[in-house]
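Board work, copied verbatim: Delta-aminolevulinic acid dehydratase
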Amino acid sequence: MYPRTRGRRLRESDAIRSLVRETRLSPSELVYPIFVIEGEGEKREISSMPGNYHFSADMLADEISELRDLGINAVLIFGVPGIKDSIGSEAYRDAGVVQRAVRNIKAQHPDMLVITDVCMCQYTDHGHCGLLSENGRVDNDRTLEYLSRIALSHARAGADMVAPSDMMDGRVGHIRDQLDDNEYKHVGIMSYAVKYASAFYGPFRDAAGSAPSFGDRKTYQMDPANTDEALREARADIDEGADIIIVKPALAYLDVVRRVKDSTGAVVAAYNVSGEYAMLKGAVESGILGEDAIMESLISIKRAGADIIITYFAKEIARKLRGK
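↓ predict structure ↓
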């Protein structure tokens, strides 16, 4: 007599399959990235990321309402400025594009969790994530002051959480001190602690206009071959005051998501980045893969240990989860 595989008969019922499912995904665990541009009355599809749009700040109300109806309670705001300079001054201007977007969202949807990306690459005329020294290298220590200015301006506009994505050493502690000293102790920090120098960022750089004008970012982003480094980076940011740790990208780094979660016990957000989105979206739209591949990919991220998933698929997944 042969042993029977446990649970095989249970899987014949949809209701029972749902009851015994080990990994679950909810719209409330998703964060939807939004690109905000200058101007008024603007909503334009991003050619490299079909289904995603550039919005002017005044056009966000309907988008946020749709997200709330789908059960998505958090957005990550990226700004695309009209003016760039060597110090990214538009990034910390009180009337900047992100600051206006945050105020508009909070005025109409005060319960929406608004997270803002804190970086300089789309604001600088050279496209790097910090200030440049005379030899053309990114000056880590000088950059910290400007990142803190950006974070503080976002907090003043009403952001609930800031997300430094620059990968400068020490920036989480510098930002935490700046926020605390200005009575914004309640504003959280979601740190891009584990951000790889990945080939999967192309569509985002097109959407944000953030490609470097020379060189690359390998001197301050992580080597894709390294995982022990990820644990060091995550622990350092936690020690400096990060509330949530981001691993970016997600699908090519599921092992890193698991290691960071198991090693630190922190709240981990995995960023399902633009290249992963475009690759899978294109495969589905061309008929190479079925739509279920999208849900399967996000389940794999959750199964790897992510508590939060930042994804351009958020609306599609939420509709599917809600049967819409």
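The chain is about 35% helix and 15% strand.
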